[in-house]
Amino acid sequence: MTALPLFLALPSAAWAQQAPVSTQSEVESQIEFSADEVTYDTNADVVSAQGQVRMERDGNYLAADRVTWDRKTGRVIAEGNIVVVNPEGDKLIGDHIDLTDTLRDGTVENLLLVLESGGRIAAVRGTRSETQTELVNSVYTPCPVTTDSGCPKNPSWKISAARIVQDRTTGRIHFVGGRLTILGVTLPLLPIFAIGGGTQTGGYDGVLVPGIRINSNNGLEFNLPYYWRFDRNRDLTVTPHLYTGAAPALEARWRHLTSIGAYQVGGFVTYGRVPDSDAVDINPESRKGIRGYFEANGRFQLDPYWTVSSSLRAATDKTITRQYDITRDDRLRSFINAERISLDSYVSIEGWAFQGLRSTDKQDRIPFALPAIDARFRFEDVLGGQVEVQANSLAILRLDGQDTQRAFASARWDLRRLTPMGQEITFTALARADAYHTDESLKTPVDIYRGRDGWQFRGIGALAADLRWPLVGPLWGGTHRVTPRIQLVVTPQTDNMDIPNEDSRSIDLEDTNLFALSRFAGYDRWEDGSRITYGVSWAFDRPKWSLQADIGQSYRLTREPSLFPDGTGLTDRFSDIVGRTRVRFGSLVDITHRFRLDKDNLALRRSEVDLTVGTDLTYVQAAYLRLNRDISPTVEDLRDKEEVRLAGRWQVMRYLSVFGSTVFDLTGQAEDPLNLADGFQQVRHRLGIIYEDECLELGVAWKRDYERVGQFKAGSTFSINFALKGIGR
């Protein structure tokens, strides 16, 4: 017989012409069987098969060269190239196996057990039952044991044990008399040690890999996370932190995956001295008390259109996040957002809150945004174009400061056409009606942001035409594209200064907003007065390298004074000249330069360079930013600065790399009169070495932060990073 599948409910017709007719048991009726050659001993009731023998029952699968099946005792003996697969996906490979006819329970000699999660267990002998597999003189590793070319190699880490027990009910793998070997170094383990098998059922309660750090503020730190798994979709990790230079701390994180989304809640709490965060306090005072940090975030998909997401963050003081290396953010943002997205509409209802962590932040003057509502609806084929209708409402509240409420409705129509000569023309019409109400405007120190108390109303209208003409042709063995562009915007004079400015304070003319209808970032300010904007883009491509350059300028057609502060590049009728240049040599070199040139003397008012040289594994990155705009220091959101950032990574060996980064503040009083630095201020440094392969991560890092918050200075931190990949929690 050749590869003939047999259902054991009808065995006699296939095995021997004189086999007795009998009623088969329920167990036998569930077994599927095939082989190249099958013989049946009617007296002994023994089936012998060889050549691509295949047996399957209830998801348990057996493949071997030779199989002998005693139907009286239910014993199945298989030999040669044996593969047994259970319903969970674990694969057992061996030379000799003795099973029951369930194809689940039995004993194997010289076996290799390949787990569904990718781990491997090799053993001299193994016994398998319904819920457990016990292996004697065995070795476990989740790491690859062969190279890419198929040659054998030692795994990065492995656990050798006198006995290993795989519990399929809990997903745990227990080791008795185990030893851990990492990169050839053998370490003893506890007499009885267990890990998760990496399967969905493989989570369990237990201690995770500890962490060690040395910090100039806290001394030597040791943390030991403990993990509780309550279900497949819920877990809790509690981490005690011990310090030689500070009081102990406790960290916890709860995670929950639901049927419609996921969320997590975390916190950090300790007791100790709270440094005075006031940078100008002549007699700083510190106090002792409970210090803590809280965070939570989540996202839920209520239906195909509606999504609810949130992120909540809070700290008891301004320095705890830096002292305990929780985050370097200088502002904690919290929000709750309900969002509806469809093909032709967008609705967002959200609330925002902020906590300032800088020494100069006054929390009572930091705003809440509640509610913030934005709704947009798109309609196609209206007068040949597309119409977007928008409604927006925002309430800004402060405990001690100016409060503002805003609402507006707008409609925008866009029509895009291509001429027979290849020109792209876009016509735009915009109409908007605004209503504002504000209180206590005199508490805002910058007068151009205040507006007037009470109700204010504003109407906005604009017409625009935008023309691009791409011209493509061959050049120097490649292809180049020249795209001149000109835009006309017509908009009447608009009343702006009576309106409070909450979201349009950060103004900077650059290549990304040169052709915008309004160069203000938000809605509270509108750029009135008609203007012409013109520019050109040039792109050149040839094999392995490319170049792209953009440059442009605008000209105001009206003589009315501009809203923009001096130094923004938009004050006079002619704007400053802005542009961007990007050069790439394959994937090895990528450099981008953004600039703004003074229209009168071509001085660099903004210069930003980003450079990357190297591959994904070995590279150097450099960034330089200089803002030399000479804006009044009273305009707090537009202060000049100069900064250099450097970063790099060097792959010393295949899995071994050295990395580092540094930031320098080059801002002096010439750029910013309010800056106390001398033109060269170290901000932070980082240096480390890491070994990382498919299943092991081991590294040492040092970082130093020079930032001060009142009395507190972050200082240096040394940390050891160690992770065994492939261990399920």
From TrEMBL:
GO BP: Gram-negative-bacterium-type cell outer membrane assembly; lipopolysaccharide transport
Domain of life of the organism encoding this protein: Bacteria
Main location: membrane
Ranges for domain LptD C-terminal: 290-654
Function: Involved in the assembly of lipopolysaccharide (LPS) at the surface of the outer membrane.
Membership in a protein family: Belongs to the LptD family.
Protein name: LPS-assembly protein LptD
Organism: Sphingomonas cremea
Gene (UniProt): lptD
